[in-house]
Amino acid sequence: MMNDQAEALRHLVSRQDPTELQTASRIVTVTSGKGGVGKSNFSLNFALALQRLGKRVLVFDADIGMANIDVLMGRSSTYSLYHLLKQEKTIWEIIQLGPEGLHYIAGGSGFSDLIDLTEDQLNRFAGEIEKLHGQYDVILFDTGAGLSKETVKFIGAAQETIVVTTPEPTSITDAYALIKMVSGMGMGVDFKLIVNRAIDHREGRETAQKMNLVTNRFLQFELPMLGIVADDSNVSKAVKRQIPFLIAFPHTDATAAVTRIAKNFLEIPGTRSDSGGVKGFLTKFFRLSR
Question: What is the pTM of this model?
Answer without folding.
Answer: 0.89
